[in-house]
TrEMBL record:
Keyword DNA-binding carried by entry: yes
Organism: Mesorhizobium plurifarium
PANTHER family listed in its UniProt record: HTH-TYPE TRANSCRIPTIONAL ACTIVATOR RHAS-RELATED, TRANSCRIPTIONAL REGULATORY PROTEIN
UniProt cross-references to PROSITE patterns, sorted A to Z: HTH_ARAC_FAMILY_2 (PS01124)
Keywords: DNA-binding, Transcription, Transcription regulation
Upper classification of the organism: Bacteria, Pseudomonadati, Pseudomonadota, Alphaproteobacteria, Hyphomicrobiales
Gene3D superfamilies linked to this entry: Homeodomain-like (1.10.10.60)
InterPro entries cross-referenced by the UniProt entry: AraC_XylS_family_regulators, Homeodomain-like_sf, HTH_AraC
Protein's name in the database: Transcriptional regulator, AraC family
Residues spanning the signal sequence: none
Gene Ontology molecular function terms on file: DNA-binding transcription factor activity; sequence-specific DNA binding
Amino acid sequence: MADASTISTLRGAVVAYSLTPSGSHTFPASHHVVYVGLESAPGTCARLGDSKAERYDAPAGDIIVKPAHLEARLHLSKARESAIIIYPDDSLKELARQQFGSEQAELRPPPFGAVDHTALRIAQLLKAELTREHGPSEYFVERLIAILGVHLLHAYAAPDDTEPQPFKGGLTRKATRSLQNFLRANLAQKISVNELAALANLSPRQFTHAFTKTFGKSPHRYLLDLRLDHAAGLLAEGQLTIADVAYLSGFSSQSHLTAAMKKHRGITPTLLRSSS
């Protein structure tokens, strides 16, 4: 990489902002790699593993998610501003354990050319920090990488990204799909366990047990994570006030959103939305 600013964190992750030169680049099968384009790149060609190479016009904010077990190849027709974040497998597993109570969270790459506004905003913050005149704050970089890792797990590996397998004590497939659709459609509304239990035709106590068995977290925590992800996406777009984002994401107030995001994601809405 040319003109690169790179830093390694205490947990072994590596982040780099660079003007990635034109030509071919290979990311070997060893660590998880996240590539975020900070500007558009017509004529990009990419391939994951043994899949067929795809040619596309990459927009600003497009993301490539490379799981550790796959090799990725990228060809750029011109130099491009990029952020590249490398996660050791142990680092991402630790984040998965903290978020889901289990290390079994396999990354599922999105289609090439997919835009991820949250990842773009974090990449912009990383760029600003890595190119500071007096050097980056390692603590701030560490927090940004952790926040991006949590976002990746929720967006591309969270339990709700895959259809949970029914097993003894869990929800049926039909109930699972109905609840997922209902929760996503009603994030801004007050939602009670009694209401969700009725949708699944279970008592509140039975429902809470079955839901936790299926998703690996309580209904309250699952809904909170959905709301935080939704809020993060709206904040990344930067068009709404934080108070409006809080309301549209189901939080009772701006202070409620701020407290929840700081506690569970380690960052405030203002910091997440801002960029240099």
